[in-house]
């Protein structure tokens, strides 16, 4: 696992940098901020790229809280109130679940980069940051994410897109 300072140097996207900065400020002296500590006004410019899931430990299930319009365009549906398996293709659902669970239980931060393929044959790239949340500041109970897609979002919305979860570059970072 890599340290937090190195994460701040490798992030390319302004959206990811701002959301990370807000997450760090919102947590204060706790390991993690709560969902209620995330201020939409602070990250407002990047809300189309922001998403969040609540983690139900008893059911070992992620339930959608929020997905910005760019996230919905690529996923093809809204996530709010829906379980993670309902929102991802079967072959990717378990991979995504396992990664988000590692972030929550670690707790740790995950950064990924990879390809997004469109049904037109065109493709783009994405950079994603997944940050743990904890209502009590200590016990992980959700994730806050931000994803920057470098592709034509209008085409993704109209024609569909597929995230290549199986071939992403993944790095985990300490929250300390």
UniProtKB/TrEMBL annotation:
<dbReference type="Pfam" id="PF07310">
    <property type="entry name" value="PAS_5"/>
</dbReference>
<dbReference type="InterPro" id="IPR009922">
    <property type="entry name" value="DUF1457"/>
</dbReference>
<protein>
    <recommendedName>
        <fullName>PAS domain-containing protein</fullName>
    </recommendedName>
</protein>
